[in-house]
Design brief:
The chain contains four helices and ten strands. The protein has a single domain, classed as Dihydrofolate Reductase, subunit A.
């Protein structure tokens, strides 16, 4: 099983504002930056509950792959029409094992807390982080405390005319 992160952060490392808003990304909406190519490589999406709630606020449903929403508090999901979603809870290792048994091979992991949990569990293989030329000053951080240092291998860095800077890393094992 492979698990990857593909996300955008402010220069100061935040995925979203403190109220979960990502409106600061709107000026870059539609800029080609590899997302479509990345999505073509995965076969399932793992989202945190708060990220799922943000995505529900977008017009239409954007995922064509199965989406697994992680939550310890929700008992059921209100799923948009045409969406293939399932609620899961538990330890990230157990979730990955369950999805692997179901035949999934490459997960897209999204949501600040979920990314941090998967990093702590040693389950992330690759990260593509797009830095947006914006300082938020506060918000939901991409990274949190880790039980040990993680060594990364730089794969590539790309720059875009809009000012986006995207770096791709593999997690060294």
């Amino acid at each position: 099983m492979k698990a990857s992160v593909f996300c955008a952060t402010s220069i100061d490392g935040f995925l979203a504002r403190t109220d979960d808003s990502i409106d600061w990304l709107n000026p870059y909406e539609g800029d080609p930056h590899g997302y479509e190519e990345f999505i073509a490589t995965i076969d399932a999406v793992v989202l945190g509950r708060r990220t799922f709630e943000v995505v529900l606020g977008f017009p239409g449903w954007h995922y064509t792959k199965p989406v697994f929403v992680l939550s310890h508090t929700l008992k059921e999901l209100h799923i948009p029409e045409a969406a293939q979603c399932e609620l899961l809870s538990g330890d990230p290792r157990d979730i990955v094992a369950t999805l692997e048994r179901r035949g999934y091979h490459h997960l897209y992991v999204d949501g600040g807390i979920v990314i941090q949990q998967f990093l702590r569990a040693g389950l992330i293989d690759r990260m593509t982080i797009t830095r947006v030329p914006m300082l938020l000053g506060a918000g939901i951080p991409l990274f949190g405390a880790l039980p040990r240092e993680l060594q990364l291998h730089h794969v590539a860095t790309r720059t875009y005319p809009s000012g986006l800077v995207q770096s791709e890393y593999e997690i060294k094992r």
